[in-house]
Specification:
Blueprint (H helix, E strand, L loop, with lengths): L2 H7 L15 H4 L13 H15 L4 H14 L7
Helix pairs in contact: 3-4
Length: 81
């Protein structure tokens, strides 16, 4: 998740240790960036970022699944419906 909105949506989120995925610069530059206050849920933010990664990068689905699982493991309860 993007560190600025994640810090607003996920209690206890630490941008220094939060889950991330390494991307080539060219792919990273194709991702959209949220600016300003984020008022949505952590679940919506993670879903948005995963969708953005799926549509704009060559990241394998297995890596995206690991990223989702790691977020849920590190921040239990943050991604409920």
């Amino acid at each position: 998740m993007q560190k600025h909105p994640a810090g607003q949506a996920v209690k206890g989120y630490d941008p220094a240790t939060g889950p991330s995925i390494a991307l080539p610069r060219g792919e990273h530059s194709r991702l959209s960036t949220l600016k300003g206050d984020y008022t949505g849920s952590a679940r919506d933010l993670l879903a948005r970022d995963i969708r953005d990664l799926r549509n704009n990068t060559n990241a394998p689905n297995s890596s995206l699944r690991q990223l989702i699982d790691l977020n849920k493991e590190m921040y239990p309860g943050a991604f409920g419906r």
